Fold this sequence. Notes:
Layout: H1 2-15, E1 30-34, E2 39-43, E3 68-69, E4 75-76, H2 81-91, H3 98-107, E5 112-121, H4 122-129, E6 136-138, E7 153-154, E8 159-160, E9 168-170, H5 173-180, H6 205-212, H7 222-233, H8 237-248, H9 254-257, H10 283-291, H11 305-319, H12 328-332, H13 353-364, H14 367-370, E10 375-382
Parallel strand pairs: 5-10
Antiparallel strand pairs: 1-2, 3-4, 6-9, 7-8
Amino acid sequence: MRHRLLAAVTLLALFGSTLFGVAAEGTGTAVTTTTATATTTTAVGTTTAPSASTTAPSASAPAATGTTTTGNGSEVPPSDEDTFEAWLTAQEFPESYRPALRELHKAYPNWVFRAQHTGLTWQEVLDAQSVVGVSLVPRGSIASWKSCEYGAYTPATGTWKGLDSDAWVAADRGIIAYCLDPRVALTATAIFQFENLAYSETCTIDGVKAILAGTFMAEGDWAAWFMEAGRETGVSPYHLASRARQEQGVSGNPLAHGTADAPYNGYYNIFNVNAYATDTLSPIQNGARYAATTNAAYHLPWTTPLLAIRGGAVILGNSYINREQNTLYLQKFDVTDGGNGYYRHQYMTNIFAPSSEAVTLAGAYTDEVKAGAMEFCIPVYKDMPEKVC
């Protein structure tokens, strides 16, 4: 626990109240699993094409007495303190969660906090996320964030093994615990990694533009394209824009501009779907090759940015949002069984990505939107440490 606390202090010293800031932009990574064989494949900034079937997330949390509802049907606990305390009790939030939730409630009395009881123990989840290759940090991270486990580090040379690409190495168990602990993220910005990412009418084109500001997507029709894709798929356009920014960074890679080498020039892949490295092909080549395939369900081939956004949104919806992985946190830490088991279906290996994207997502909302009803699904594990990691 001591080294976990040191890692937490170092993080805050580096990035302040924004937790991990946006330093990880353009570094979203994925771990996907072939269900038939239960073998894991690691990919850079990718998702895998899902099956046509989807599973709607369940909503089993208990309701407090006298609640109202938001536009999308979410129950909102009344804002008075006594009833809010009853809500926390009804949700069975552990006491260690409650001080931070009380502070958030004071600032945003219309926000809804739902306890997502996973039924999993803290130790088993941490063990699963600590397997070498599942959770990564940038190679330039401080040494205490990098794993020295077998397969991650070579003592003879004092070097860390590159995973996915040479820029990424295995994360140390202590920093994984810090990022995994939901209580760390109970701040006004970091909590957006728990926001329900289903489509909501509260999303506006101005909010999307705020997310895209300062990137190559700031001009033109990009914001409208994300809004259109969100309405079609039931996925938050804020999430789509934030994910695109996470994958493409400020300038965008060749997949964003349709400039991959022949024979795949003219194909787009905004979310870096299937953009993983193999012995013979680079991530860009694989991503462009996927974009050139034909599949009407995903609007393939992706010969325009709009088609790539619409198709990628379908994949995100079918693979994640509508399969009980409807928060940024759950897309890194697969602790729900949406029909594909646990830990196997993770969009990214970058442990900082949920908090990094949360910063971007939170910045998209105006103060007026934040004053309204917003829903956050916060995981709870069995046998958690008494203190925050």
